[in-house]
């Protein structure tokens, strides 16, 4: 994101933006540019206590006050200027946003505050691989020293909870000068903070902080925060001072040195796959992708396969999710060249397969993973194809993944959990009462908003794609009998798909084929029947499908989940839980679907200059959002209706991964070189002209 000129912006505009920085083990820091927390998930240190889950908001925020001397001689007087900003019932207090002049999230969050006779730069750095945050304050452009007072406010609770004043004995114990420890209680964890100032103890509660976004979302949004005392600094012109908070004991010099090293690495980084002029959109996408990739300690990885899940699904409330990681796989891991992490993800998911089904969710409480997605395993097979397309490394597939791919096919053939069964035509159905087994999985209590029981169109597109990939692998690894079997089954699936899914009256595919009829709802799931490496839909039907999607579903910010003409359409994702779930997959526009849309357009039209320009135009809304209102991230969804307000999680792995892949492959035209004879994505119907 470019430098944000905060002085010229209104408070509501500033509060509509949220910045995020992650620490590579599931923890993060997140708030608004003015530091006013609008969500219970906001905080300066949200720590993963069992990486990458069991996250807790430890340090919610810090209230800073600058005490300066104005005037000289007998007319001089002390003036207090607050830098912080918070919302209480009926009021905003203090008004630190009035001193905020600029904000930037690159290469890490930085703020510029200005008062009479002083300018202070504040920066926040999270240490990669540990639950530690470092705040630095530097006095710039001042003629006299100032006094800076920090009041850290702690929440000490899980991310989905709220803290209220209670009678427990919270205390800040001094371990040494500049080192304080908050001992654990039956409710709260042990926390440490360190600084190069003077600590004056005086614990008290700050009552009734309001989180406006939680109130808007129909949740409780009132919290009390505990303040252990004041850290005071005398800050001379040009001097920097520091405040560090961590879930572990702190060596201040080590933390500052490590923070400086990490900052230097961030500043030195550049986009690795293009040369020549800098591409700001690409660089922003690569930075956004970084936030989702985990670098877990060896002890965590060796603890078990489920603990080694190394991609976060979204921020600020979602833990890792298998389906999301596999949908984002190419963009997050392969395009940036993170092949070690890609290998780890594939091996982790293979190790967690159960009767051919892979986990779709990894719970926040570190309980065993949940197996709720009929499509997750098929996305895994597609990821194996992408691995070979980008690396050509057959040894991993042959030695560690091939057996899992075949087992998935066999289990789906014979029937497995989630009511997954292959019908006589070879099509896949999923019938699990009370469970939404596709990516359209909104649920409120026992009510499944979009159940889609039967034969979902994208499940069968993925099934055909998986059969063809499995057949290719079998042929390559000398399992010729299996290869022939899978080819014959794939052909049966292709014929049945085109016979049963095509809706002639609408010029597109049915969304679900049930036992009692077909669902004619116009949804984007049919895009996968064109965009996957092996497209199941007959090529002469691709153009009319794209025409329908352009007309009914495509928006400047993503692809709608339901046509506006449908009686069930909901164009605004807002309100309480039920209202939002009604709109979640009933009209909301998803950026991640621009990935399949871009691939489909390139397939139909060829990779021409005109096609690249068209796809760039489709991605432009998300790229502009990423570099402006999204503060370096792409959110989960947007309203289906104009002006397409953002909604859902503020940062989505699916959104970033798919938009990054579409931008690199279809706009920049950077495709992986074929290695070991493994094919790149099949050529378009018409060859590129002038590309």
Rg, nearest Å: 27 Å
Query: What count of helical segments does DSSP give?
Result: 18
Shape: elongated
Arithmetic mean pLDDT: 93
As a percent range, the share of strand residues is 25-35%
Structural class: alpha+beta
In whole angstroms, the N-to-C terminal distance is: 30 Å
Approximately how much helix is present in the residues? 25-40%
Low-confidence stretches: 270-277, 681-691
Count of β-strands: 34
Main sheet?
8 strands, antiparallel
Folded structure, characterized:
With 691 residues, the protein is α+β, with helices and mostly antiparallel strands. It is 31% helix and 25% strand. The strands form ten sheets. Strands 1, 2, 3, 4, 5, 12, 16 and 17 form an eight-stranded antiparallel sheet that branches. Strands 8-9-10-11-18-15-14-13 form an eight-stranded antiparallel sheet, covered by helices on one side. The model is unreliable at 270-277 and 681-691 (pLDDT under 50).
Key phrases:
disordered C terminus, eight-stranded antiparallel sheet, 31% helix, alpha+beta, 691 residues
Summarize the structure.
With 691 residues, the protein is α+β, with helices and mostly antiparallel strands. It contains 18 helices and 34 strands. Helix 8 packs parallel to helix 10 (394-414) and helix 16 (594-605) packs antiparallel against helix 17 (609-626).
Which helices and strands appear, and what pairs or packs with what?
Layout lengths: L10 H5 L3 E4 L5 E4 L11 E8 L2 E18 L6 E6 L2 E4 L2 E5 L4 E5 L5 E6 L2 E9 L5 E9 L5 E13 L14 E4 L2 E4 L8 E5 L2 E13 L1 H5 L5 E14 L4 E7 L5 H17 L11 H11 L7 H4 L12 E2 L6 H6 L1 H6 L4 H14 L23 H16 L2 H21 L5 E3 L5 E3 L12 E2 L2 E2 L6 E2 H20 L3 H21 L1 E2 L4 E2 L2 E3 L2 E3 L8 H4 L10 H11 L1 E2 L2 E3 L16 H8 L4 E2 L3 H12 L3 H18 L10 E2 L7 E2 L3 E2 H15 L24
Helix pairs in contact: 4-18, 8-9, 8-10, 9-10, 9-11, 10-11, 11-12, 16-17, 16-18, 17-18
């Amino acid at each position: 994101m470019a430098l944000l000129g905060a002085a010229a912006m209104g408070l509501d505009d500033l509060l509509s933006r949220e910045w995020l920085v992650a620490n590579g083990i599931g923890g993060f820091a997140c708030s608004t540019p003015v530091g006013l927390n609008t969500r219970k998930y906001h905080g300066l240190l949200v720590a993963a206590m069992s990486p990458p889950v069991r996250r807790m908001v430890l340090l919610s925020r810090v209230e800073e006050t600058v005490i300066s001397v104005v005037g000289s001689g007998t007319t001089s007087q002390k003036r207090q200027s607050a830098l912080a900003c918070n919302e209480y019932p009926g009021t905003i207090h203090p008004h630190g946003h009035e001193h905020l002049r600029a904000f930037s999230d690159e290469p890490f969050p930085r703020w510029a505050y200005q008062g009479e006779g002083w300018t202070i730069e504040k920066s926040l750095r999270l240490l990669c691989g540990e639950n530690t945050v470092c705040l630095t304050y530097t006095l710039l452009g001042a003629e006299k020293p100032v006094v800076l007072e920090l009041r850290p406010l702690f929440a000490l609770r899980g991310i989905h909870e709220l803290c209220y004043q209670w009678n427990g004995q919270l205390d800040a114990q001094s371990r040494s000068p500049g080192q304080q420890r908050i001992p654990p209680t039956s409710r709260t964890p042990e926390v440490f903070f360190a600084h190069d100032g003077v600590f004056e103890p005086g614990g008290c509660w700050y009552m009734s902080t309001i989180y406006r976004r939680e109130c808007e979302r129909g949740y409780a949004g009132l919290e009390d925060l505990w303040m252990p005392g004041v850290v005071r600094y005398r800050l001379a012109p040009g001097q920097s001072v520091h405040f560090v908070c961590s879930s572990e004991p702190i060596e201040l010099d080590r933390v500052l040195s490590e923070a400086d090293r990490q900052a230097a690495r961030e500043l030195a980084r550049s986009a690795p796959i293009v040369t020549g002029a800098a591409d700001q959109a690409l660089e922003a996408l690569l930075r956004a992708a970084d936030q989702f990739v985990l670098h877990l300690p060896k002890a965590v990885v060796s603890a078990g396969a489920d603990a080694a899940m190394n991609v976060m699904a979204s921020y600020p409330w979602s833990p890792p999710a298998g389906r999301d990681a596999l949908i984002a796989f190419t963009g997050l891991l392969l395009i940036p060249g993170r092949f070690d992490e890609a290998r780890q993800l594939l091996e982790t998911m293979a190790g967690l397969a159960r009767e051919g089904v892979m986990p779709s969710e990894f719970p926040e409480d570190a309980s065993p993973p949940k197996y709720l997605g009929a499509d997750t395993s098929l996305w895994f097979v597609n990821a194996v194809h992408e691995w070979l397309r980008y690396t050509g490394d057959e040894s991993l597939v042959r030695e560690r993944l091939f057996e899992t791919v075949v087992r998935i096919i066999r289990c789906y053939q014979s029937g497995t959990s989630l009511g997954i069964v292959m019908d006589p035509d070879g099509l896949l159905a999923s019938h699990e009462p009370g469970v939404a087994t596709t990516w359209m999985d909104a649920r409120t209590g026992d009510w499944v908003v979009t159940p889609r029981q039967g034969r979902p169109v994208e499940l069968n597109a993925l099934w055909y794609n998986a059969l063809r990939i499995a057949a290719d692998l079998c042929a390559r690894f000398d399992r010729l009998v299996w290869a022939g079997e899978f080819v014959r089954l794939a052909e049966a699936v292709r014929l049945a798909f085109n016979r049963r899914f095509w809706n002639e009256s609408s010029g597109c595919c049915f969304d679900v084929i049930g036992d009692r009829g077909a669902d004619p709802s116009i949804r984007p799931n049919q895009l996968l029947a064109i965009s996957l490496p092996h497209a199941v839909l007959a090529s002469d039907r691709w153009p009319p499908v794209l025409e329908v999607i352009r007309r009914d579903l495509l928006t400047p910010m993503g692809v709608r989940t339901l046509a506006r003409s449908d009686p069930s359409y909901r164009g605004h994702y807002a309100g309480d839980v039920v209202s939002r779930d009604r709109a979640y997959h009933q009209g909301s526009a998803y950026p991640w679907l621009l990935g399949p849309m871009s691939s489909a357009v390139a397939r139909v039209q060829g990779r021409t200059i005109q096609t690249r320009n068209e796809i760039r135009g489709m991605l432009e809304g998300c790229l502009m959002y990423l570099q402006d209102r999204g503060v370096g991230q792409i959110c989960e969804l947007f309203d289906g209706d104009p002006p397409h307000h953002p909604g859902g999680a503020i940062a989505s792995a699916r959104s970033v991964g798919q938009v990054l892949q579409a931008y690199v492959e279809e706009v920049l035209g950077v495709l992986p070189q074929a290695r070991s004879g493994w094919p790149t994505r099949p050529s378009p119907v018409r060859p590129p002209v002038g590309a």
